[in-house]
Amino acid sequence: LTSDDPEWKGISMEEIYKHHGPFDWHHLPPIHPSPSHTILFELPLPNRGPPRPHPVQAVDKWNQDCVRMPHSVHSLYPIDPENEATGGFRRRWEVIQESLLQNFMSSHQLEASILSYNHKYAERWDFAALHYFFNEYIDEEEAKMCLGSLIPKIVQLALQLPDLITGPIPLLKRQRNTTISLSQLQVASLLANAFLCTFPRRNSTNPQSEYGSFPFINFNKLFSSFREERHSRSHAVMEKLKCIFHYFRRVTSKAPEGTITIQRRFVPKKSCPRWDKQHVKLPALHITSKGTIESQGAGLLQVDFANKYVGGGVLNYGCVQEEIRFVICPELMVTMLVTEALDDTEALIINGVERYSRYEGYSSSFKWAGDFTDETPRDSSGRLKTCIVAIDALYFKQPNVQFNMGNVIRELNKAYVGFSSEIVSNNMPAVATGNWGCGAFRGNPQLKVLVQLMAAAVAGRSMVYFTFGDTNLRDSVADMYWHLIRHDVDIGRLFALLSQYQETQPENRSDFYRFLYNRSKIKPLTHYFNADKKSP
Ligand code: AR6
Q1: Which residue, 44, 209, 254, 271, is most buried by CB atoms nearer than 10 A?
Q2: Threshold 0.80, pTM exceeds
Q3: Catalytic residue (choose from 239, 322, 354, 392)
Q4: Cβ pair 272, 345 in contact under 8 A
Q5: What is the Cβ-side half-sphere exposure of residue 466, based on CA atoms within 13 angstroms?
Q6: Residue 29 per-residue DSSP state
């Protein structure tokens, strides 16, 4: 089963794809409304053009369970911001419209405009990144084009919001299984509003505030992410801005026609697997040092190495796996509008997002590398057949702590919730993953690969693992994988071995894989017992 091809080990991609094309899985049911699934467009879809908004008669809800929309009649703004007590109030949406419908000659005018409906933050927000981008980073011609032509289009797209979104958008709150489907055009308009910082109540930094447990969505955070002394990280922010402007260029020159589904998945802890009692075997594994999840994982369940506040530092200095994915597929950012911080046994699954940009480099060397045409086919509900699952690993300050069984179980459950599905099928796409939790979050990839394999096994999926250039990791994991297969080590047994390793005192702990090699050769009693029963 192993190959001579030095780039990969384990099972071939043909076998992972079960000898079909990458997009031939039939595991995802069409979009269908239900009490837990809100659909913001009309079904069936039109033969051409973007989906029409649903409901036909607009409904304006202003409460704790839905996104507080900037155009709601309930969103009010002081007529005289300096003198709230005396001046009375008007609709904030009117203020937004008036201040945005103008010709912008500079990014400073755009800043003034944004602040005119966010006066509370006039002293606190700065727009250093935005100004650097327009005045220093891109050339004058480009800056002129962007301000004179693209920004007005973004404004148009944002101001279409009341026509494009007619129903309340439910929030995906903690410990609820809730799903939302939107059209790509609706998402574009929401993101145009985020860009212009129009979402009310989303700016407080107080954790006790109404949205204290939600990610930030207004782009002011990104616009201020620039410091001379953080030169290389500020540079990456400039390149992220290029990706975002490119996205808006694309969606304002031709309205996208597809749809997107966002699902919050919650499995109560008591319904998660008893890991010591799982007798499934390790699943098929393809492990490679070449390629990335988003490029070579076509059609598979692609893991987003997430923060519990989905999107992580995308609207800030962050520029690692999650943030890069969010800027090359900016539709992912709409999840930040609706998703409350993920709990331990929760995941977010996003179907249908499109990729708009190419990129080069990583972290501080990240660069926008031009337009990307996404050739992924669509399903019958208009979604690109791209499926992403956001799971947040634990951050480990102390490397030893990750072997504590409480933490191992937490990571097993998290991966299980992300990889499993309420739809039972024996034809589930493999998981496309890699060093989840092992970069910014400082986990041990030799442990995390096994944790993910165990979760995939119980969820009934194979796995494609990208080591991101690390050939040593590829080889050591492949060797361990074949060793465990040869010794018939099942998930419960592997769990028991992890727990034995953890019982040895940290100062006496040997190399983790050496420990597994030594111990897994010794078969547990139950195996002898079963073997005895079979022998004559
Ligand atoms: N494909 C495959 N592997 C990759 C890719 C890719 N496209 N990009 C990176 N890797 P990291 P974490 C590998 O640090 O540790 C964010 O801020 C590469 O080896 O992004 O889970 C989130 O918002 C890299 O070192 O994930 C969270 O706050 C490793 O994957 C936090 O980082 C881990 O990537 C999560 O940190």
Answers
A1: 209
A2: yes
A3: 322
A4: yes
A5: 21
A6: P
For ligand 1, atom 34, name the residue with the nearest CA.
Answer: 439
In order of 234, 423, 487, 526, 532, the CA distances from 529 in angstroms are 62, 35, 16, 5, 5
Active site (annotated) includes residue 323: yes
pLDDT-based confidence at residue 4 (cuts at 50, 70, 90): low
**Which among 321, 447, 477 is the best mutation to test ligand 1's pocket, defined by most ligand atoms within 8 Å of the CB?**
321
pLDDT higher at 261 or 504: 261
The question of whether 136 is a catalytic residue gets the answer no
* Catalytic, out of 111, 294, 323, 346: 323
pLDDT in tens, 193-251: 999 999 999 999 999 999 999 999 999 999 999 998 898 999 999 999 999 999 999 99
* CA dist., res. 384 & res. 379, Å (int): 6
Residues 6+ apart with CB under 8 A from 432: 293, 296, 297, 300, 301, 302, 303, 464, 466
Q: Which amino acid is at 527?
A: H
Name the residue at shortest CA distance from atom 28 of ligand 1: 307
